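Slide 14.
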Amino acid sequence: MKQFLNEILLFFRGITKVCKNFYCYRPVSVVKDKSSKIDVSGLIYFNVPLNSKQKRKTAGYIEIGQGSKISCDGEFTFYTGCKLSVMKNAELKIGSGYCNCDSKIYCYESITIGKNVIIAEDVIIRDSDNHLISGNQKKSAPIVIEDDVWIGMGAKILKGVTIGRGSVIAAGAVVTHDVNGGVPAKIIKENISWHI
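Slide 15: predicted structure.
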């Protein structure tokens, strides 16, 4: 009975429960294949307004494809207007942190996001080109974002890159290689520390 009452309370607060420890603020579209798996030992909040005065007009979108898997072992928040697509047989692993408004994650093979990761507004993280390009034999390659990373507004993280621990990716950067930041991405400074 207690669980049922909690579900009713969530509904009236504008929150939809996707599965255990995975909550979405409406409006949100969730398309989930029956064969996909979601393992959230931590917490995921999706399409969360930035503050109590913000109207939730921007819809969030989640697509979880056939045979795909999402796991989260920390607390991670996606703010309003984010899009999360985990395609057929792909795997998304999430640690802790947040993804700011209108950012998009397209996982076609494998994306790993570490702990204490900050993803700013309008960021795109995409591990696939979706097609082969002349001379390129692989259209998808895993992305690894290690712990304590800050990705600046409008950055694009493309297939096959590892972003090392403690990196700061500059606003507008296009990251195509294992480097730490800039436009085009290049190392500006190493071994920095920052706090929220």
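Speaker note: The first helix runs from residue 2 to 12.
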